[in-house]
Prior knowledge:
By secondary structure, chain A is mainly β.
Amino acid sequence: MKELKISAIREGTVIDHIPAKNTFKVAEILDLALYENVTSVATNLGSKKMSKKGIVKIGGRELTEQEVDKVALIAPEATVSIIKNYEVKKKFSLKIPDKIIGIMKCSNPKCITNVDKVATRFSVVKSKPLEARCDYCERVMKEDELVLL
Amino acid sequence: MNFEGKDVISIRDYSKDELLYILKIAKKMENSRKKLLDGKIMASLFFEPSTRTRFSFISAMEQLGGQVMGFAKANITSASKGETLWDTIKMVEQYSDVIVIRNPIEGAARLAAEASSIPVINAGDGSNQHPTQTMLDLYTIQKTKGTLDNLHIGFCGDLKYGRTVHSLTIAMSMFNAKMYFIAPEDLQMPEEYLEELRHKKILFQKTSTINEVISKLDVLYMTRIQKERFPDPMEYQRLKGVYQIGLEILKNAKKELKIMHPLPRVDEIKPELDNTPNAVYFQQAGYGIHVRKALLALVLGKIR
């Protein structure tokens, strides 16, 4: 039997198939450093689907819709499993939403969202690699310009 | 088509049919002095200098029997006291029926439209959009060339910062234009627009000299190198005056070539061209009134 690299959780969320380079970013955007429940973060694991992957297991917590959208931006091929009593209750693949609201910054310093207090809003032009047009200044942002709020 | 209550923020919000409908109404406005907007008030909020666009909106509104209130300098408003744009709009909408806004911050017009319950018309937001200019550009092309379809159009000058060029490129891509981008590499069309054209399968060519493409053009759209858009004044000094056209340009051009310019010009078009049948830039400025009259009457629901 294959040895489990990190232990199973009783209740919570498992995010699998995170690109290895973004594993700690996922932990960061979910504020796991300050989270007090059982949490496991593993990275550079072997994977059939991708070259190296990361897994994050968060005990006792289901992700909010906004958190799911945020994770999707940096781990668009990840899968999310909701665990109840050691069993997978729900499993879904992440998808970049058509509209990205309030979670990433516009790279244009002259954009109104960087001047007044306005929630950012982008329309996705292309999801792989990510390209999104700011609904306000209409500048297209590429994946390498992505800064999460 | 019903435009009542609609905002005019970006050329991207309009379909080809909607644009053609607006141009059709603009044509009707040419000889009309009907007081369609009697009793209506237009708030003219110019946070950045403008003469042509502002006067043209004021004149359009007054020709239609409406009234205008507003300002032409941001430093006399509460914005200078730190009021947010959102709050300014929330106040202004109480006093007027339609808002015309120019603001150097990109996306300001979209935000204003979200704040406002009355129609908002974007009169330019930084180097982003200036949709009424684009509509009057389309009107000029349609009027002077007889069609908008399948034309060869050259854009020359500051294609990097020039919003009129960006918007007109998007609009002309709906009419299967072939485009020529004439600019030094540092002022060339931003890649995102070129990518959009490739995606739409619109043919284009980039070049740094007018002579290379002049014989192919039906329309030459000249632009000014805009000092106010350059982050670095040294870069402006290096690039200003790089293109200047005069009578010699016509030698290899099609007889029916039309030369357009959003104005103001600095030295890119010599006055010797002004009286040729090819020069249509002053007409172009005049057509702005018809287009703006059409838009005001449409968004205020007086034409359906």
